Amino acid sequence: MTDTVLPDTTAAARTAPVLEVRGLRTHFPVKRGFLGRTVGHVRAVDGVDLSVRPGETLGLVGESGCGKTTLGRSVARILRPTSGRISYRPEAGAEPVDVAALSGRGLRAYQRQVRVVFQDPFSSLNPRMTLLQIVGEPLRSYGIATGAELEDRVAAMLTRVGLSPKYLHRYPHAFSGGERQRVSIARALIVDPKLVVADEPVSALDVSVRAQILNLLRDLQEEFALTYLFISHDLSVVESVCDRVAVMYLGRIVELAGTDELYARPRHPYTEALLSAVPRPDPRLRGSARRIRLSDDLPDPAHPPAGCPFRTRCRFARPGLCDVPEKPPALIPAAGGTDPGHRVACHLAGELTLTGVHETPGATA
Ligand code: SF4
Protein backbone atom coordinates (compact mmCIF):
# COMPACT_ATOMS: atom_id res chain seq x y z
CA MET A 1 0.00 0.00 0.00
CA THR A 2 2.97 2.31 0.58
CA ASP A 3 6.65 2.35 -0.17
CA THR A 4 8.65 0.18 2.23
CA VAL A 5 10.38 2.17 4.96
CA LEU A 6 12.78 1.17 7.73
CA PRO A 7 10.72 -0.04 10.69
CA ASP A 8 10.49 2.32 13.65
CA THR A 9 11.06 0.10 16.68
CA THR A 10 10.62 2.73 19.35
CA ALA A 11 8.09 2.14 22.14
CA ALA A 12 5.99 4.95 20.73
CA ALA A 13 5.79 3.21 17.38
CA ARG A 14 4.84 -0.12 18.99
CA THR A 15 1.90 1.48 20.80
CA ALA A 16 1.01 3.89 18.01
CA PRO A 17 -2.68 3.92 17.03
CA VAL A 18 -3.72 1.56 14.29
CA LEU A 19 -6.08 4.29 13.11
CA GLU A 20 -5.89 8.03 13.66
CA VAL A 21 -8.63 10.37 12.48
CA ARG A 22 -8.00 14.13 12.38
CA GLY A 23 -10.51 16.84 11.46
CA LEU A 24 -12.70 14.37 9.56
CA ARG A 25 -15.75 15.77 7.80
CA THR A 26 -18.29 13.85 5.74
CA HIS A 27 -20.99 16.15 4.40
CA PHE A 28 -23.87 15.27 2.07
CA PRO A 29 -25.35 17.83 -0.34
CA VAL A 30 -29.02 18.78 0.08
CA LYS A 31 -30.51 19.17 -3.38
CA ARG A 32 -33.74 20.96 -4.32
CA GLY A 33 -35.78 21.84 -7.36
CA PHE A 34 -36.07 20.51 -10.89
CA LEU A 35 -32.39 21.09 -11.62
CA GLY A 36 -31.27 19.51 -8.36
CA ARG A 37 -29.49 22.62 -7.12
CA THR A 38 -27.38 22.18 -3.97
CA VAL A 39 -28.98 24.33 -1.28
CA GLY A 40 -27.00 23.17 1.72
CA HIS A 41 -25.12 20.29 3.31
CA VAL A 42 -25.95 17.74 5.97
CA ARG A 43 -22.90 17.68 8.23
CA ALA A 44 -23.11 14.03 9.24
CA VAL A 45 -19.50 13.98 10.45
CA ASP A 46 -18.23 17.44 11.26
CA GLY A 47 -14.67 17.60 12.50
CA VAL A 48 -13.90 14.33 14.30
CA ASP A 49 -10.56 13.58 16.00
CA LEU A 50 -10.17 9.98 17.14
CA SER A 51 -7.50 7.31 17.67
CA VAL A 52 -7.97 3.54 17.78
CA ARG A 53 -5.23 1.56 19.54
CA PRO A 54 -4.09 -1.87 18.41
CA GLY A 55 -6.12 -4.69 19.96
CA GLU A 56 -8.69 -2.49 21.67
CA THR A 57 -12.44 -2.20 21.26
CA LEU A 58 -13.40 1.44 20.89
CA GLY A 59 -17.12 2.08 21.32
CA LEU A 60 -18.88 4.81 19.38
CA VAL A 61 -22.21 5.76 20.93
CA GLY A 62 -24.94 8.34 20.39
CA GLU A 63 -28.55 8.67 19.34
CA SER A 64 -29.78 7.59 15.94
CA GLY A 65 -28.76 10.30 13.44
CA CYS A 66 -25.71 11.51 15.39
CA GLY A 67 -23.34 10.46 12.59
CA LYS A 68 -21.77 7.34 14.08
CA THR A 69 -22.64 5.06 11.15
CA THR A 70 -21.38 7.68 8.67
CA LEU A 71 -18.15 7.93 10.66
CA GLY A 72 -17.75 4.13 10.61
CA ARG A 73 -18.37 4.01 6.87
CA SER A 74 -15.96 6.87 6.27
CA VAL A 75 -13.28 5.06 8.26
CA ALA A 76 -13.93 1.88 6.24
CA ARG A 77 -13.88 4.07 3.11
CA ILE A 78 -17.31 2.88 1.97
CA LEU A 79 -17.91 6.64 1.95
CA ARG A 80 -15.39 9.19 0.77
CA PRO A 81 -14.82 11.89 3.42
CA THR A 82 -15.30 15.52 2.42
CA SER A 83 -12.10 16.57 4.18
CA GLY A 84 -9.74 15.58 6.97
CA ARG A 85 -7.20 12.83 7.45
CA ILE A 86 -7.49 9.12 8.30
CA SER A 87 -4.09 7.56 9.02
CA TYR A 88 -3.95 3.78 9.06
CA ARG A 89 -0.92 1.95 10.42
CA PRO A 90 -1.22 -1.77 9.55
CA GLU A 91 1.48 -2.79 12.03
CA ALA A 92 3.87 -1.35 14.59
CA GLY A 93 6.67 0.55 12.94
CA ALA A 94 4.93 0.76 9.58
CA GLU A 95 4.54 4.09 7.83
CA PRO A 96 0.91 5.28 8.18
CA VAL A 97 -1.24 5.38 5.06
CA ASP A 98 -3.49 8.37 4.31
CA VAL A 99 -6.74 6.49 3.84
CA ALA A 100 -8.88 9.50 2.93
CA ALA A 101 -6.85 9.95 -0.27
CA LEU A 102 -6.79 6.28 -1.34
CA SER A 103 -8.31 5.06 -4.60
CA GLY A 104 -8.03 2.08 -6.95
CA ARG A 105 -5.76 -0.76 -5.82
CA GLY A 106 -4.62 1.05 -2.69
CA LEU A 107 -8.23 1.41 -1.56
CA ARG A 108 -8.98 -2.25 -2.27
CA ALA A 109 -5.92 -3.33 -0.29
CA TYR A 110 -7.08 -1.14 2.61
CA GLN A 111 -10.61 -2.55 2.48
CA ARG A 112 -9.19 -6.05 2.79
CA GLN A 113 -7.60 -5.06 6.10
CA VAL A 114 -10.51 -3.00 7.40
CA ARG A 115 -13.78 -4.93 7.17
CA VAL A 116 -17.34 -4.11 8.18
CA VAL A 117 -20.00 -6.17 9.96
CA PHE A 118 -23.35 -4.54 9.23
CA GLN A 119 -26.35 -4.17 11.49
CA ASP A 120 -28.99 -6.09 9.63
CA PRO A 121 -28.02 -9.66 8.71
CA PHE A 122 -31.30 -10.00 6.79
CA SER A 123 -30.51 -7.32 4.20
CA SER A 124 -26.70 -7.52 4.16
CA LEU A 125 -26.60 -11.09 2.78
CA ASN A 126 -27.53 -11.72 -0.85
CA PRO A 127 -30.51 -14.14 -0.74
CA ARG A 128 -29.50 -15.68 -4.10
CA MET A 129 -26.03 -16.70 -2.95
CA THR A 130 -25.10 -19.76 -0.90
CA LEU A 131 -22.98 -19.50 2.23
CA LEU A 132 -20.03 -20.78 0.21
CA GLN A 133 -20.48 -17.96 -2.32
CA ILE A 134 -21.12 -15.27 0.31
CA VAL A 135 -18.21 -16.09 2.60
CA GLY A 136 -15.92 -17.14 -0.26
CA GLU A 137 -16.52 -14.07 -2.42
CA PRO A 138 -13.79 -11.93 -0.76
CA LEU A 139 -11.28 -14.79 -1.21
CA ARG A 140 -12.13 -14.91 -4.88
CA SER A 141 -12.20 -11.17 -5.51
CA TYR A 142 -8.85 -10.61 -3.75
CA GLY A 143 -7.31 -13.56 -5.63
CA ILE A 144 -6.49 -15.40 -2.39
CA ALA A 145 -8.06 -18.79 -3.15
CA THR A 146 -10.29 -20.62 -5.62
CA GLY A 147 -11.78 -24.10 -6.04
CA ALA A 148 -11.17 -26.70 -3.36
CA GLU A 149 -8.88 -24.43 -1.33
CA LEU A 150 -11.56 -21.75 -1.21
CA GLU A 151 -14.15 -24.28 -0.10
CA ASP A 152 -11.84 -25.61 2.63
CA ARG A 153 -11.18 -22.10 3.93
CA VAL A 154 -14.86 -21.21 3.97
CA ALA A 155 -15.73 -24.46 5.76
CA ALA A 156 -13.05 -23.77 8.39
CA MET A 157 -14.27 -20.22 8.94
CA LEU A 158 -17.90 -21.32 9.24
CA THR A 159 -16.82 -23.83 11.86
CA ARG A 160 -14.92 -21.10 13.70
CA VAL A 161 -18.00 -18.87 13.91
CA GLY A 162 -20.15 -21.75 15.15
CA LEU A 163 -21.83 -22.96 11.96
CA SER A 164 -21.58 -26.45 10.52
CA PRO A 165 -19.71 -26.78 7.19
CA LYS A 166 -22.60 -28.94 6.00
CA TYR A 167 -24.49 -25.65 5.45
CA LEU A 168 -22.05 -24.53 2.73
CA HIS A 169 -24.58 -24.90 -0.06
CA ARG A 170 -27.59 -23.47 1.74
CA TYR A 171 -29.06 -20.00 1.25
CA PRO A 172 -29.42 -17.29 3.95
CA HIS A 173 -33.21 -17.67 4.25
CA ALA A 174 -32.65 -21.05 5.94
CA PHE A 175 -31.00 -19.38 8.94
CA SER A 176 -32.01 -17.40 12.00
CA GLY A 177 -30.88 -13.81 12.60
CA GLY A 178 -28.09 -14.91 14.92
CA GLU A 179 -26.85 -17.49 12.42
CA ARG A 180 -26.91 -14.92 9.61
CA GLN A 181 -24.85 -12.55 11.71
CA ARG A 182 -22.34 -15.39 12.18
CA VAL A 183 -22.20 -15.62 8.37
CA SER A 184 -21.58 -11.85 8.16
CA ILE A 185 -18.76 -12.15 10.67
CA ALA A 186 -17.26 -15.08 8.72
CA ARG A 187 -17.38 -13.00 5.51
CA ALA A 188 -15.62 -10.10 7.27
CA LEU A 189 -12.88 -12.26 8.81
CA ILE A 190 -12.16 -14.66 5.93
CA VAL A 191 -9.48 -12.31 4.49
CA ASP A 192 -7.67 -11.89 7.81
CA PRO A 193 -8.36 -8.19 8.51
CA LYS A 194 -6.69 -6.05 11.19
CA LEU A 195 -9.59 -3.75 12.03
CA VAL A 196 -13.32 -4.53 12.07
CA VAL A 197 -15.96 -1.81 12.04
CA ALA A 198 -18.93 -3.48 13.75
CA ASP A 199 -21.98 -1.30 13.05
CA GLU A 200 -24.73 -2.16 15.57
CA PRO A 201 -23.85 -5.87 15.17
CA VAL A 202 -26.43 -7.14 17.68
CA SER A 203 -29.20 -4.54 17.68
CA ALA A 204 -31.31 -6.40 15.07
CA LEU A 205 -31.07 -9.66 17.02
CA ASP A 206 -33.24 -11.22 19.71
CA VAL A 207 -32.01 -10.47 23.21
CA SER A 208 -31.48 -14.20 23.73
CA VAL A 209 -28.78 -14.44 21.02
CA ARG A 210 -27.06 -11.07 21.58
CA ALA A 211 -24.77 -12.40 24.30
CA GLN A 212 -23.73 -15.32 22.07
CA ILE A 213 -22.70 -13.00 19.23
CA LEU A 214 -20.90 -10.63 21.62
CA ASN A 215 -19.00 -13.57 23.14
CA LEU A 216 -18.11 -14.77 19.65
CA LEU A 217 -16.77 -11.32 18.71
CA ARG A 218 -14.71 -11.27 21.90
CA ASP A 219 -13.25 -14.74 21.25
CA LEU A 220 -12.44 -13.90 17.64
CA GLN A 221 -10.75 -10.66 18.69
CA GLU A 222 -8.37 -12.60 20.87
CA GLU A 223 -7.77 -15.38 18.37
CA PHE A 224 -7.15 -13.12 15.36
CA ALA A 225 -5.61 -10.13 17.22
CA LEU A 226 -8.37 -7.87 15.94
CA THR A 227 -9.08 -4.24 16.70
CA TYR A 228 -12.75 -3.22 16.81
CA LEU A 229 -14.56 0.03 16.21
CA PHE A 230 -17.86 -0.93 17.83
CA ILE A 231 -20.83 1.28 16.91
CA SER A 232 -23.96 1.06 19.04
CA HIS A 233 -26.78 3.08 20.53
CA ASP A 234 -27.08 0.56 23.38
CA LEU A 235 -24.90 1.70 26.27
CA SER A 236 -25.37 -1.56 28.19
CA VAL A 237 -23.89 -3.52 25.29
CA VAL A 238 -21.06 -1.00 24.86
CA GLU A 239 -20.17 -1.21 28.54
CA SER A 240 -19.87 -4.99 28.33
CA VAL A 241 -17.51 -5.10 25.33
CA CYS A 242 -15.58 -1.83 24.97
CA ASP A 243 -12.26 -0.69 26.45
CA ARG A 244 -12.88 2.98 25.66
CA VAL A 245 -15.96 4.88 24.56
CA ALA A 246 -16.41 7.93 22.32
CA VAL A 247 -19.74 9.78 22.62
CA MET A 248 -20.92 11.42 19.42
CA TYR A 249 -23.41 14.26 19.03
CA LEU A 250 -24.36 16.01 15.78
CA GLY A 251 -21.29 14.80 13.91
CA ARG A 252 -18.75 15.54 16.67
CA ILE A 253 -17.10 13.65 19.52
CA VAL A 254 -18.22 15.34 22.75
CA GLU A 255 -16.61 12.96 25.24
CA LEU A 256 -14.03 10.20 25.15
CA ALA A 257 -12.72 8.06 28.03
CA GLY A 258 -12.00 4.57 29.28
CA THR A 259 -15.27 2.67 29.77
CA ASP A 260 -15.10 2.48 33.58
CA GLU A 261 -14.26 6.17 33.88
CA LEU A 262 -16.95 7.32 31.45
CA TYR A 263 -19.71 5.27 33.07
CA ALA A 264 -18.72 6.25 36.61
CA ARG A 265 -17.78 9.89 36.05
CA PRO A 266 -19.29 11.41 32.89
CA ARG A 267 -18.19 15.00 32.29
CA HIS A 268 -20.52 16.00 29.45
CA PRO A 269 -24.26 16.61 30.06
CA TYR A 270 -25.14 14.62 26.93
CA THR A 271 -23.23 11.56 28.21
CA GLU A 272 -24.97 11.91 31.56
CA ALA A 273 -28.37 11.95 29.83
CA LEU A 274 -27.53 8.83 27.79
CA LEU A 275 -26.29 7.02 30.89
CA SER A 276 -29.40 7.93 32.85
CA ALA A 277 -31.36 5.61 30.52
CA VAL A 278 -29.11 2.61 31.26
CA PRO A 279 -30.85 0.04 33.48
CA ARG A 280 -29.10 -0.21 36.86
CA PRO A 281 -28.22 -3.73 37.93
CA ASP A 282 -27.78 -2.72 41.59
CA PRO A 283 -31.30 -2.78 43.16
CA ARG A 284 -30.20 -0.16 45.75
CA LEU A 285 -29.63 2.34 42.95
CA ARG A 286 -32.69 1.62 40.83
CA GLY A 287 -35.08 3.81 42.74
CA SER A 288 -32.62 6.66 42.99
CA ALA A 289 -31.81 6.75 39.29
CA ARG A 290 -33.18 9.90 37.76
CA ARG A 291 -33.90 9.65 34.06
CA ILE A 292 -32.79 12.82 32.29
CA ARG A 293 -35.14 13.42 29.40
CA LEU A 294 -33.65 15.53 26.65
CA SER A 295 -35.82 18.31 25.28
CA ASP A 296 -36.79 18.35 21.61
CA ASP A 297 -35.40 16.08 18.94
CA LEU A 298 -31.91 16.03 17.56
CA PRO A 299 -31.39 19.35 15.70
CA ASP A 300 -31.16 19.32 11.90
CA PRO A 301 -27.54 18.36 11.06
CA ALA A 302 -27.81 20.68 8.02
CA HIS A 303 -28.25 23.58 10.47
CA PRO A 304 -26.51 22.70 13.74
CA PRO A 305 -26.82 25.24 16.56
CA ALA A 306 -24.02 27.81 16.66
CA GLY A 307 -21.55 27.57 19.51
CA CYS A 308 -22.03 24.31 21.44
CA PRO A 309 -24.13 22.01 19.22
CA PHE A 310 -25.79 20.53 22.34
CA ARG A 311 -26.90 23.88 23.80
CA THR A 312 -30.53 23.65 22.57
CA ARG A 313 -31.06 20.53 24.72
CA CYS A 314 -28.63 21.15 27.56
CA ARG A 315 -30.06 21.92 31.01
CA PHE A 316 -26.84 23.74 31.94
CA ALA A 317 -26.55 25.94 28.82
CA ARG A 318 -25.30 29.39 29.73
CA PRO A 319 -26.21 32.33 27.45
CA GLY A 320 -23.22 34.38 26.40
CA LEU A 321 -20.93 31.37 26.73
CA CYS A 322 -22.45 28.28 25.16
CA ASP A 323 -24.08 30.12 22.24
CA VAL A 324 -21.07 32.11 21.02
CA PRO A 325 -20.68 31.07 17.36
CA GLU A 326 -16.93 31.64 17.30
CA LYS A 327 -16.35 29.49 20.39
CA PRO A 328 -17.65 25.93 20.02
CA PRO A 329 -16.22 23.86 22.91
CA ALA A 330 -13.09 21.93 21.89
CA LEU A 331 -12.43 18.33 22.89
CA ILE A 332 -9.81 18.85 25.60
CA PRO A 333 -8.42 16.87 28.57
CA ALA A 334 -10.91 16.59 31.45
CA ALA A 335 -9.21 17.50 34.69
CA GLY A 336 -9.62 15.58 37.91
CA GLY A 337 -10.55 12.06 36.78
CA THR A 338 -8.62 8.82 37.06
CA ASP A 339 -8.18 8.44 33.29
CA PRO A 340 -5.52 10.73 31.79
CA GLY A 341 -7.04 10.07 28.35
CA HIS A 342 -10.44 11.47 29.37
CA ARG A 343 -11.49 14.22 26.93
CA VAL A 344 -14.61 16.38 26.97
CA ALA A 345 -16.06 19.19 24.84
CA CYS A 346 -18.00 21.37 27.30
CA HIS A 347 -17.23 24.90 28.52
CA LEU A 348 -18.53 24.03 31.98
CA ALA A 349 -17.04 20.56 32.40
CA GLY A 350 -14.89 21.72 35.33
CA GLU A 351 -17.89 23.10 37.26
CA LEU A 352 -20.61 20.50 36.73
CA THR A 353 -21.47 17.65 39.08
CA LEU A 354 -22.83 14.86 36.91
CA THR A 355 -24.09 11.38 37.70
CA GLY A 356 -22.80 8.11 36.26
CA VAL A 357 -24.35 4.67 36.38
CA HIS A 358 -22.22 3.13 39.10
CA GLU A 359 -22.32 5.87 41.67
CA THR A 360 -25.08 7.38 43.73
CA PRO A 361 -26.67 10.53 42.29
CA GLY A 362 -24.79 13.64 43.23
CA ALA A 363 -21.37 11.97 43.22
CA THR A 364 -18.85 14.59 42.35
CA ALA A 365 -16.93 14.23 39.13
FE1 SF4 B 1 -24.12 22.41 27.89
FE2 SF4 B 1 -22.72 24.64 27.55
FE3 SF4 B 1 -21.47 22.38 28.10
FE4 SF4 B 1 -22.61 22.72 25.74
S1 SF4 B 1 -20.89 23.87 26.55
S2 SF4 B 1 -22.73 20.91 26.99
S3 SF4 B 1 -24.42 23.90 26.28
S4 SF4 B 1 -22.90 23.48 29.43
Biggest β-sheet description: 8 strands, mixed
Gyration radius, rounded: 22 Å
The CATH class of the largest domain turns out to be Alpha Beta
Derived from helix and strand composition plus strand pairing, the structural class reads: alpha/beta
CATH topology call of the largest domain: Rossmann fold
> How many domain modules?
2
CATH architecture of the largest domain, by name, is 3-Layer(aba) Sandwich
Helicity level: 25-40%
Distance, first to last CA: 45 Å
Which geometry do the CA atoms define? globular
User: What is the mean pLDDT?
Assistant: 90
Q: Which runs of at least 5 residues are low in confidence (pLDDT < 50)? A: 1-13, 360-365
The total count of helices amounts to 11
Explain this structure to me?
The protein is of the alpha/beta class and about 375 residues long. It has 2 domains: about 230 residues, Rossmann fold; about 100 residues, no CATH class. The protein has 11 helices and 12 strands. It has an 8-stranded mixed beta sheet with strand order 6-7-8-3-9-10-12-11, with helices on both faces. The N terminus and C terminus are likely disordered. Iron/sulfur cluster binds next to loops.
